[in-house]
Amino acid sequence: MTVFGTPTAKDRRPRDVADQGRGWARPFIAIAGVAVLLVTIVVAMHSPWLSLQKLPLGVPAGSGAIDVRMYFERADRVNTGTEVRYGELIIGRVALVETNGEEAIVTTTLDSELADIPGEPFAEIRQPTALGSPFVAIEPPQDPGTQVLSDGDSIPRFRTAMGPDLESSLATVGMLLNGSGIEQFKTVMTELSTALAGKGQALDRVSDRGDRMLELYELHRQDINDTMDTLGRITEALHNRRDLLNRGMAVSADVVTEVAENRDQLDDLMGTTVTLSGQLRIFVDSTSANYTPLLDHSRALLEDMQSLEGEAGPILVKLTEFVDLFNDASPGDYLAFDGALDVPGSLDSLYSGGMARGAERGGGGEP
């Protein structure tokens, strides 16, 4: 019962219980709200369709905007709105990410007024931290020319790269920390020591041979270079005369074809040649007994005539002078001289004793 608006103890008890219940519920509601907010932020940062990078914030537009395509092996976690940096300067963002089935194609929109990027630059996708968003870093070439990156240019695959993969790095560190990498290294070293046990001298010999080979190469390096240059010139000459070689090969092919077509005739010719050789050998064997003494006498005669070469010359000269003087003399009825020399008859008399002349007489010649 309330007196002058003052609640009694009976009336205050339910209200105190309700106030105490509200006091316990408020901290739980605040904690639950903070947890939901954190979960929402994390999901928004790591969900591609909820990423804040997809908002077109800072994308260049206007007269200084250029579109540049970049080809990467892959483009993990790269979305529309990803930053493009040139050094420490943000010069643009990713406008489109697609693929052709073999590589990732990242189309970026850059503000050329912020920085003059040299032509043929390098691009790399980098991951700053474990929870940070990746970005595309553009690096100038080692020898920048006068050309600059312009609208419609592209950076091919061989001038792009992926930065260090954080997950792989953490996995490697974890493997080393838990001892598996060290154990594998111990196993490798143990097996290597077992394989090389007792082979130190052999390895030393191999090393010495390698050193000698290098020394020989250094000594004959000029000769090797000359040989390689000569081979290069020969190859160039063959290349320049390739048409002539092709014609020669074609002619050779025709010759081989003709030989193949006349193979039977060639076989018959070879057989006839073999038969003729056999008959000639039989003839030589059967007549060698008759001709061998004759050849021996001929050789002796030639040797004797060669020994008389120095004496026969002056005698013939004197005989010639005698014949000339005798012809100048007045011939008479009782003076006649036949100064003709019968050289064949003389040789016949010396060699066969007149057998050849006798044969001629016997064959019907005059005596």
TrEMBL record:
<dbReference type="Pfam" id="PF02470">
    <property type="entry name" value="MlaD"/>
</dbReference>
<dbReference type="InterPro" id="IPR005693">
    <property type="entry name" value="Mce"/>
</dbReference>
<keyword id="KW-0472">Membrane</keyword>
<feature type="domain" description="Mce/MlaD">
    <location>
        <begin position="66"/>
        <end position="141"/>
    </location>
</feature>
<dbReference type="InterPro" id="IPR024516">
    <property type="entry name" value="Mce_C"/>
</dbReference>
<feature type="transmembrane region" description="Helical">
    <location>
        <begin position="24"/>
        <end position="45"/>
    </location>
</feature>
<keyword id="KW-0812">Transmembrane</keyword>
<dbReference type="Pfam" id="PF11887">
    <property type="entry name" value="Mce4_CUP1"/>
</dbReference>
<protein>
    <submittedName>
        <fullName>Uncharacterized protein</fullName>
    </submittedName>
</protein>
<dbReference type="InterPro" id="IPR052336">
    <property type="entry name" value="MlaD_Phospholipid_Transporter"/>
</dbReference>
<feature type="domain" description="Mammalian cell entry C-terminal">
    <location>
        <begin position="147"/>
        <end position="323"/>
    </location>
</feature>
<dbReference type="InterPro" id="IPR003399">
    <property type="entry name" value="Mce/MlaD"/>
</dbReference>
<keyword id="KW-1133">Transmembrane helix</keyword>
